[in-house]
Amino acid sequence: MLKTGIVGLPNVGKSTLFNALTRSRKAEAANYPFCTIDPNVGVVTVPDDRLPELARIAKTTVLIPAAIEFVDIAGLVAGASKGEGLGNQFLAHIREVDAIVHVVRCFEDPDVIHTMGGIDPVRDIDVITTELILADLDAVQKRIDKNQKKAKSGDKEAHAELALLERLAPHLNANKPANILPVHEDEARLMRFFQLLSAKPVIYACNVAESDLASAEGNQFVQKVAAFVRAHHDAAYVPISARIEAELVDLPPDEATAFLKDLGVSDSGVSSLIRATYALLGLLTYFTAGEKEARAWTIKKGWKAPQAAGVIHTDFEKGFIKAEVVSYADLTRLGSVAAAREAGKYRLEGKDYVFQDGDVALFRFNR
Predict the structure, then answer these.
(1) Which of 20, 229, 346, 355 fits a 20 to 30 Å CA distance from 221?
(2) What value, to the nearest 5°, has the Cα angle with vertex 22 and ends 21 and 26?
(3) pTM of the model
C-alpha cells in the first residue's frame, strides 16, 4: 500500500488532520511543539460514489473501497537538515513515504502557539522545502563524489547517473525542489533510485479557521499559498479546517452532512484531500464486482492488464490470459453485464490493454 506523509511546522494542525483523515484519536494534538514524536500510521479509504452502484448491480452487500496509508510525521523546524529539533527523525520518516501532504497554517489564533511568530504560510513552506533541499544537496554531492571515479573508468551507468546529478546540484542550490527539474523517462527512473526528499510529489493542505471554511478561497493566506505553489512548485492545494474535520469524526454520516451544510460547505475537506492525494500519486481505480463483493483496486496510471490483475494475486499476473472489461459508465447506463454484452460494450482485452479509471474487470488466467 502506498504511503503519504503528513508534514509541516509544529502546531499547524498535522495531528488534528491525521485524526480526521483516519477517523481516530491515534495522534496526540496539543498546543506545544513536538507533541508527535513517533509517527502515527492509519489506513484511509478513498471516497468513491461508484462502488455502491456497482454493488447494487452485482447484488452484493459487501463493499471494499480502495485505501491509502497516511503517516503523521513529527513537526520540522529550521535547521532540521543539520539535526535541529527532531530533524533527523523527520527526514528518516519522510524518506519512507511516496508522497507528502504539507499542512500549512492559514488561520490566526493567539491561543495557538506559532513557533516562528506571526502567520506567514509562504515563509513556512520555504522553511520545510529548504530543509528537504539541503538534505538532498548533501546526498547528491556524496553521489557525485562516488560516481566520478566510476564514470572515468568507463562505467556507463555511473556516467548516466553523474550527468543527472550534475544537473541536479545547481538546481537544488537555487533552492528549487527536485520534483520540478525537467527530466526524461530514463532520468525519472534514476531519480526514484536516488530517493531524494524534495523529489516526492506534494499537495498543500491549507488549514483555515472554522469561520473561513465556506469562503476559504477568499482567505488571504490561502490566496498567498495558491499563488506561491503554482509559481514555484507546480503543485496543488486544498483548503481544509482540521478542527472541523476532527469534530466530524464522532458524528454519523447524516449528521456530519447536516453539520457541513450549516457551515455552507457541501463536501468534507478530508474527502477532497484524500481524492487529491490519490490523484497526486498517479493512481486510478478499477473494480471487480460479483455476488461475493464489489471491490475497488488501486493501480498506477498506464498499467497494462497483467499488472492490474497482479494486484489481486500474483498468480493472476503470471498466468494472465485475457481480461473481460466493461467501463463503469457503460455498465451503469445499461444496468447489467448481460445488457452490456448485448450492446457490444463488454469486451475481451489482451496483455497490451492499458487499464482505464472505472474499468470493471474479470480476469481469465492459467492456474
Answers:
(1) 20
(2) 120
(3) 0.79
